[in-house]
Amino acid sequence: MENRKPLYQRLKEHSAQGRSSFHTPGHKCSSFLPPELLKLDLTELPDTDALFEANGIIRQCEKKLSQLYSTEDSFISAGGCSLAIQAMLRAALRSGGRLLCARNAHRSAVNACALLGIEPLWICPHSSSSYTGRTEPSDIEKAFEENDDITACYITSPSYYGELCDISAIADICHRNGAILLVDNAHGSHLAFMKEKLHPIALGADMSACSLHKTMPVMTGGAVLNTGNKRLAENARSDMSLFGSTSPSYVIMASIDLCVDYMLYGDGKKAYADCEKRVGEIRKAALRKGIVQPQGSCDPLRLTFNTALCGIRGEKAQLEYFEAHGIDCEFCDGENAVLLCTPFNSERDFQRVESAIEDMPESSVSNEQPYSFSMPEKVISLRKAMLCSHVRVKTINAQGRIAADTACPCPPGVPVIMPGERIDQEAVELLLRYGIDEICVADGI
């Protein structure tokens, strides 16, 4: 018999399993968001305000968001962090100039650059074979020394694996050179509530795109554009309206309102502080076991375990060590298991992680080999490549062709190839290594 509600049914079945969620969304399907929220799925009415002309209750909520994050102003997005990223690129480069952009940019930033006619100047994060890497202040400084037309700098922090950039130092370099610092902080909305203030705005960034739903108790799609620069805040709402839906979800916005109330007036800040301490205990237990984790400054609520160095690669880690203990990871790639923790994980959830760690073998390798690749040759502009006629070809046959889309492993990492770049033999080998068997290329160019 045909399943008439396949998606709905599968979601119900998964929910009924009682698994421990260490993936987005941050509310972990807990009881924090009340069931009656769905009854509030309304639209723009005389008494419900309108997101892109907000001057009533939505504006009140945004002012509380600004208070929570200590910003010049904050703007709600019901279209995810992608909308906030698109808007801040528009805001920063409205008058032109060049964008210095870390190459681990999310595809939403690459797409926005193509639509806005922005040609990024790429810089590669310092990375290892296992992690995305950090954008170093020294590389930012060097780029400014070699280019006098940089208007804005765009970096991602934290990385998907939890690595944090030295935002204070990068902000200082940018501002000394008259440039704006934009931070994709999609995975770091909670960083304002850690023991050490780690949120980009607190560290000097001019704008940050924060995906609230990833680590805060907000429904999927809830995000905020935070501004630390008064000038950029003036037109931020119109910048968002350029990309956003005219029918934003009031249910998502209401969940943001509940989250703000929880953080400003409820037990939210204490809950996140307690969670930071609990996750720290798990991290220490993993280190005692010899399980390698990213070095340097990292997101206090993210657990990234290099299972490959324990002799456990690919999906085997997820199946044999996490799923076997009733754990759903955010992601397991060929080398790492990534777990997102929030106060809405129960003590039982954390105990399951500890049991999985205890069952893992100890690491057999003491260090990693650094990962590097040669920057591909740029042939045509990003915009031209993404908007031109294109075809999909087998990666094995793509050498010499011009990429028409980003090509990188998921989760977002350092793309092997960007639109407009020529695919060389090294790129082919890396793409195949990451399991990317097909690639979009320009047709007739």
What this model shows, in words?
Helix 3 (80-92) crosses helix 4 (107-116). Helices cover 35% and strands 14% of the residues. The chain has 15 helices and 14 strands. It is an alpha/beta fold and 445 residues long. 51% of the residues are buried. The radius of gyration is 22 Å and the shape is globular. The N and C termini lie far apart (49 Å). A seven-stranded mixed beta sheet has the order 2-8-7-6-5-3-4, sandwiched between helices. A hairpin with a 3-residue loop joins strand 11 and strand 12.
Record the SSE blueprint.
Layout lengths: L5 H11 L3 E3 L34 H13 L3 E5 L2 H13 L5 E5 L4 H10 L3 E4 L13 H10 L3 E7 L10 H10 L3 E5 L22 E4 L1 H4 L7 E5 L2 H4 L2 H6 L8 H16 L2 H21 L13 E5 L8 H8 L4 E3 L1 E2 L3 E5 L6 H13 L22 H6 L2 E5 L30 H9 L4 E5 L3
Parallel strand pairs: 1-10, 3-4, 3-5, 5-6, 6-7
Antiparallel strand pairs: 2-8, 7-8, 9-12, 11-12, 13-14
